[in-house]
Structures are given as C-alpha cells and as structure tokens.
Amino acid sequence: MMNGCAHLERAGGTADHPLDSGAGPALSQSPQSPQSPARSPAPAPPIDPSFIEARALQAYETGRWDVAEGYYLQLIRMKPGDAGPWFQLGNLYAEQGRLASAERAYREALRRRDDARTLHNLGLVQVKLGIGALRESQKRLPQDDPARQETHEFLKTLLETVFP
Question: Domain of 154?
C-alpha cells in the first residue's frame, strides 16, 4: 500500500528537483548582453494551506496513501503549530498498519492540542502495539517457560475483552 512519499510539485518548482537547485545539466539560456542586467524571476505566490489540506483529504479518501502523506507532511511544514495535520497523518499511518509511526504522529498532535479524539486513537494504536508485542513474545518464549502460558492467558483475556 505505502511505498514512499510522493513528489509534490509546487508553483515555481521545488528545490528538491536537480534542475531547480543548479545541479545536473545546464538549461540553455539566451546569452546576456553586457548592457542588460540579469533579471531574477518573480517569486512564486505562496500556496494556500487550505488547498493543500483539500488535496490531502482527497488523496486519503481515494486510498492514494503516498500522495496524502506527502501533502500532510507539507502541511506540517506550513503550519508547524497545528495539531490537525499530525492527527490526520496518524490516521493515515494507522490505516496502513504503520502503528509506531501512527503513535508518534498522535503524540505530536497531542503536544500541539489536548484532544480526546487524538487520545482515543493513540490508545487504540497502543493496544494494537501491545497485542503485537505479546504475540511476538509468546512465539519466542520456550514451550516450558511459565511466562509463555501467562502471556497466552493474558492475550486470550485481552482479546476477548477488547474484541468480543
């Protein structure tokens, strides 16, 4: 599902592109005459965060996880104090099963705004992480280790309680 971040094009290009940073082959340009000074290109207009947010939501809703992730990361850079993009990024990661990343994103959202929904989602992710850790420990513990049977019983009770 998630293969990596999408390359986002911004108005006027990106510094990540080799041609925009001066690296790579030179583009042909008309020679400057000694009388005409070189002109700087006009700065690109700033991108509206609400546009990026709408694109992120659209990508998320259509299952384009890599594109949505790129937009949410861009929003985080644009609005570093806003909890919303972190919360949405946590949802995106949780949806993909990237639980450790989801946990970090929800914690970042909580650092910016104390919110019950974020805390709820963080708790769910932590329960899933805990269940995964207990399952893994059960596999690794020797058959005759009493902790293996305890882990088995605890997991059974936990799963019956959490997921009836």
Answer: 49-162
Cα–Cα distance for residue pair 24/41, rounded to 1 Å: 20
The reported pTM is 0.69
Per the domain annotation, does 15 fall within a domain?
no
pLDDT truncated to tens, each residue of the chain (164 aa)? 333 333 233 333 333 333 333 333 334 344 444 555 567 777 777 789 999 999 999 999 999 999 999 999 999 999 999 999 999 999 999 999 999 999 999 999 999 999 999 999 999 999 999 999 999 999 999 999 999 999 999 898 888 887 77
Residue 135 lies in a domain: yes
Count CB neighbours of 65 within 10 A.
Answer: 20
Confirm whether 119 is domain-assigned. Answer: yes
How many domains does the structure of the chain reveal? 1
Task: Tell whether 18 is covered by a domain.
Answer: no
Q: CB of 49 within 8 A of CB of 75?
A: yes
Q: How far apart (Å, rounded) are the C-alpha atoms in residues 60 and 85?
A: 12
